[in-house]
Amino acid sequence: MPVTTAQFANAVNFMCEWLETRLSPSSTTVVGYTGPNDLRCSILILAGAKTGAKVLLCSSRNSLEGKLALIQQSNCQAWLSSSEGDAQDILGEHPMPSFVIPSVSELIRAEPVPVYPYEKSFLDARWDLLAYLHTSGSTGNPKLIPIYLGAVACVDALHLIAPEDGKRPTAVEWANSTLLCMMPLFHMSSIAGALYSALMFDWTIVLPPPSPISMSLIERLLDLLPMNSAFIPPSILNEMAKSKDALNKLAALDLVISAGGPVAPFAGDIISRHTNLQQIMGSTEGHCPIFVTLPELNVWHTQDLYLAHPEIPELWKFEGRKDDLLILSNGMKINPLGAETQLSKHPAIQAACLSGSGKFQVAALIQLANGFSTNDEATLNLIHRQFVRIVDEPFVWTPKGTLARKATYAKFSQEIDSVYQEQSSGPQVNASDFDQLHTTILQAARGAIGNTSLAAEDDLFQAGFDSLSVQLLHQKLSQALWQSLQPQNENSPGVVDDVRALLAKYTFNLQPEPKGTRVILTGSTGFLGSYLLDTLVADPQVSEVWCLNRSQDALQKQIQSAKDKSLRHDWGSKVKFHTAQLGLPDWRLGAAEYRTLLKGTAHVIHNAWQVNFNLSVWSFESQIAGVSNLIQFCSEARNPVHVCYISSIRVATNWSATHVGPVPEALVQDTAAPGTGYGASKMVAENLLYQAANADVLRLTVCRVGQMSGPVLRGCDHGVWNPKEWLPTLIRTSSEMRALPEDLGNQDNIDWVPIDLAAHIISEMVFNSDTSDEARPQFFHVINPSTIRWKSVLPLIRERLQKHQNLPADVLSFNSWIRKLRNTSGNMSPVGEDEASTSNVMVNIPGRSRGCATCRKRRVKCDESLPECLACVRMRLPCPGARTGTFFVHAVPSSSSSHRTCGSALRLPSPQPSRSSAFDQLFVSHFVESFFGTMKPPPTPGTPSKIWLHELPVFLTSSESSSAKTAIRATSMISYGTLAGDVSIKTAARRWYAEALHHLQCQITKGNVSVDDSIICAVVMLIHFETWAGTSQKAWLRHLKGAAMLLQVAGPERCSHGFMHQVFSHLRFQMFVAAMTENEVPIFASQDWMTIPFRIYPKLIFDQLIDVLFSVLKCLSIADQLINSDDDGDLRAILDALIQDTMLQASQWCSSHSFMLSL
């Protein structure tokens, strides 16, 4: 039945009205569909996208378990089918509304209906769903894959790709083709072939009748209709390659496409000799749209295995899936696809499936082709061996036609087990009977290589024995002889007693490992740690919990904390407390304790971390060192260790500044995302553990926790929210003021998780994590998905305060509440009878910044620049940095008491380290990363270093290097601001740049100035400032010339050691570039400057290359003189000598470092 575009469009509008009438779909409606391979699938996809309904396309070939898994993953609310009864198996297990959609003829022949409007722009709709697809389920239950409209736009953008070697993308190259599409329409390749190609590339699509896809059906369709291309599953192509008639029909086509799995090499070789064969890979989870389908990814690991072409570096051959590999008990890894394909070539074999993971040898299951049976002795002689089983039932196949390996293994588990059981069992033999022993050995040897004519006198290895044959023979004989040598009759008691005596003698000091699971918990005495310990103690599968804490009195603290929170505190022998320094080797545990942990630890919950949002990332180095030591522990442990790392959502505080969409539950590598030293330290730890997990050192689960509230599982009388945190403090303060704020600023969105629930969630993640060898690192966000606003809980809090005080509590705007707090903070009284019960109140809350504290105290105008204002810099005064926004300060009872006694305003000490120090370290670390990745610690003092960047923190903390300090600050801020896209930071960087120029000018114009490291450092940093900012065309060159002059004044001897040598080595290449720009030979190309600075530290490979480049400059200079000279005899001789010398240097350099050039 031919269908025009107008008919198709009308059918889509008809289906939109049909969906609206029955479902009234919204943006959250998910509706599933199973049906035959007909046009309704494409119609339903577009109608769902227009109405907002998310259509789940589910293959009818999925198992019931697979269908239910997809329903659960997608939160499906209704089910559509092509006829009554099609979905009874689903609805029986998962009741929900169901409907039968109109037939194809009803949709196509429908009367014209009004156009269903769709008015969204691309930007509004790019993240709307086209449909839910799913993986094939070859390694387990299928997984849901969302296809967004933005991914469809990627396909449409193929029109924009320029030709490569005269070729365009396939869809564009073959536009206006007529395609027979035999692929299942729930598959992405078919959606592309049957929908995208028709709508975007003017293809005419031919769909098969609703009957099983087979080779004979394809042959009939190719005979009936004029077509020039076909889209055929690989399993059918493998069959067609064996049929001469089918090959002749394929030869009449211009193009044959296949997807969903690999075409067997033998079939591909045959078909490609008859027509143009193209293989599509990863259409659902691949190509450029994958980064729309999975927007949280920067890199997509396909888990495919490829083999490089031996001669053409651009070509790679698909070898199989990583999860298809069989790993034998001897560690050998085998890709079964090649052998399965080779077996399937045989005309008697329909399909083959290899198994054997964890066994000593591969076994094969054989499914015979039609017309062959296990009674066919000739066939059996050809294919039957000791590790082969011919099965009567068909294998399990995925909906797209590839082998469902795990499901096939499960279906034929008994047959597979019987192969190995037969090989591990053997006849009993009496070792004292020579004839029987001789016969047994000969039979075992014949069976090992399948050669019944093997004689006792034959050489085994000449007869075909290999290492596997030896292994089989050894197993057979060991089994037979062991059975014949069992203790018998009167000798048995004596032998048994002797064995027992020997065991008792040599095993008395071996302590058995405890049964059950041992868990290490760090930071158990904290708020979350206390509830984690309580959850672990209650878990019957946990045999021991080792609590590692820094405090010497952790046990006493833990008991008191448990009592305060109404938690268990009588742990018995199940819980052990040890003092540990995680940042030190072996955690400073005793040798015996550390060895005990190495032998039997299953899980480590790493919860210990300093919580301070004012510190820089380097202040957390001891915690990060603890993570490194934890990785070392896992690498030394006897058994694989699962690490559950308690991270924080602060690893991505600034995510929305540079990314679209929510923070993914995946590794965060954007160093600008954390925004604080605390968040950055958590991110560093995550990345370290992630790398270790990918290196198979450990298994990893990362739990990023957010704000945790008080417990709820056992009622409010059993534990409270930590009174030292901000919200309890705010409520206590509001109680004093008899006023509540109507909003909380940037904390107004409440997604808190009760602390006891969080502990249970984390425990479930620990014990329900993926334990397979291929388990990937897992990331989870422990935050409340159901968020509310502060205004929703405000009435309840107000009611409780009024009931507690018998006085009304006003609700004020946030700014009014702050003003009232500021006015009343000096008269606050303790809450309760005992003054000590008032642990915290909020006082001295500044509003919008009017400058730094130093400028406010001096009553001068502050420019509010960060990290230090210019007014304080000029006056050489300490600057804590301008405060921006509103924040709270907790005052402890002693300070409030002092306040009441003195009657003066509270003055808070400046934070340590200062905000400027924290900002400097943040900016400098990012600047260093722009050179060679994550900043490494400087080398051990006294050891040579050529990395001048290690000295920058020294200049920052020096009180005498103002020019270097301001230049470092300017350059690191301009690099950070540029990468982060922060205009305010870049503006502040330019002010610091001007300040640095001013300091340098003052230093240089003093007269009798000595060239010291700080001046050189300042000039070098200004050079790098210009590479980022480019304030003028020649600014970079002027700074470089200034640095060169200063180095020249210092002399080559000064440049042979220390910071001056590091900078000189760093600038040599830039000096070469500048000399090329100015067409001159620099003084640094002279013999003294090329030898003296390298007397202590030999030249590296790059230093030697720059020597060659300087020689090239000399040749060019002489050549210029030769062009402009009348008498060229002497100059020509000089030039010839220089060229020969330069060529010799270049040749020596290449030969010395050829190994590097080959990389």
Automatic annotation (TrEMBL):
Domain Zn(2)-C6 fungal-type: 851-879
Keyword set includes NADP: yes
InterPro entries per the UniProt record, alphabetical: Adenylate-forming_Reductase (IPR051414), AMP-binding_CS (IPR020845), AMP-dep_synth/lig_dom (IPR000873), ANL_N_sf (IPR042099), FAR_NAD-bd (IPR013120), NAD(P)-bd_dom_sf (IPR036291), Zn2-C6_fun-type_DNA-bd_sf (IPR036864), Zn2Cys6_DnaBD (IPR001138)
Record carries keyword Nucleus: yes
Residues in the signal sequence: none
Keyword set, alphabetical order: NADP, Nucleus, Phosphopantetheine, Phosphoprotein
MF-aspect GO terms: DNA-binding transcription factor activity, RNA polymerase II-specific; zinc ion binding
SMART domains, A to Z: GAL4
Full protein name: Zn(2)-C6 fungal-type domain-containing protein
